[in-house]
Amino acid sequence: MAPTSRIYLTRHAQAEHNATGDSSIADALLTKLGEQQAARLPSLTAELQDVAEVIISSPLRRTLQSASLGYAKAIERLGGHGKIVCLPQAQGAWGRLTTECNDVPCDTGSLREVLEAQPYFSKYDLSLLTPDWTSKQGFYGTDKTLTVAAHNDSLDARAQWVRQYLRERPEQHIVLVAHGDFLRRLTKEPESYWANAEVRVFQFEPSAVHTDACPLAYVAHVAEGDWIDSEAPEPVPTTQDALSSMEQRVKQMQASLASQTDVLADLDRRLEAAERKTAELEGQEGPL
C-alpha cells in the first residue's frame, strides 16, 4: 500500500468517434491525429517516463494505443507491453453526474479473444478481462430502467473501487490511461473536462486516504493536451482572464478612437486653411 503515491491520470488521444461524432464505431481506434497527439507525450513527460513504476490502462483500444505511444519510453524500461495492467474497471462511464451510463459501440470494449486475435493488441496482458467486462451489466451496468441517481451510485462505486485499487498498489508513481468521463468520476470533478492526451497528477488526500472514499487531490498539470475534437470546447476563461481580455479590447478601442480623433482634427485644420485661402483669393481679385 502506498497512500503517498502520485497518480498520473491521462486521457486517451483523439479517437475516430471524437473526430466524426459517430458513436456507432465499435471500440474506436485513434485517428492519425490521435496517434500524433499520443506520440508527443514522451517528449512532454520526460521526467515521468523515467520515474513511472507501472502503466495501467482501460482495455478499450484507444486507451491501449494511447498508453503504448504516450508512455513508450517507460514501457520499454519496465519490460514491454506485457507489463501494462489492462484494468477493465477503468472503462468509460459516459456523461456528467446527471446522465446515464453509455452502452454505445464506441464506448464498448472488445472481448479478450477478439483483442488477442489482433497483432497490435495481442502483446498486452489481457488476463484481467473477464467475459462480462463488455456486457454493460452488473458492475459495468447500464440498466436504463434504473433512475439517474441509481446509475450515478453504480458508476461512483466503480470509480471508488479503482481509487482503492490504486491506493493498495505499492508503487509511488502510477500512470492510469482512461477516459474523460471516467476520470471525472474518479477525481469527483464532474465539470472538469479533459483534452486529448492530457496528463494531470493527483495524490490521495492525506486526511481521508484510509477511508473507503479515499478521494484524490489535484497537484498539477503535466501535459496540457490538445482540444481539437476533444470532449468539450476550450475551457471557459477565468474571471481574471475575461477581465484582462476586456481591458485589452478597451485599450484597443481607445487607441482606435484617439487615432480617428487625430484624423478628424487634421481634416478640420485643413478645411479651415482652405477656407482662409479661398477668402484671401477672393479679396485679392476685388470687384469686377
From TrEMBL:
CDD domains: HP_PGM_like (cd07067). Residues 231-258 are annotated as: Disordered. Residues 237-258 have a biased composition (Polar residues). It comes from the Eukaryota. SUPFAM superfamilies: Phosphoglycerate mutase-like. One of its GO terms (cellular component) is cytoplasm. GO terms for molecular function: phosphatase activity. InterPro entries: His_Pase_superF_clade-1 (IPR013078), His_PPase_superfam (IPR029033), PGM_Phosphatase (IPR050275). This is Phosphoglycerate mutase-like protein. It comes from Malassezia nana.
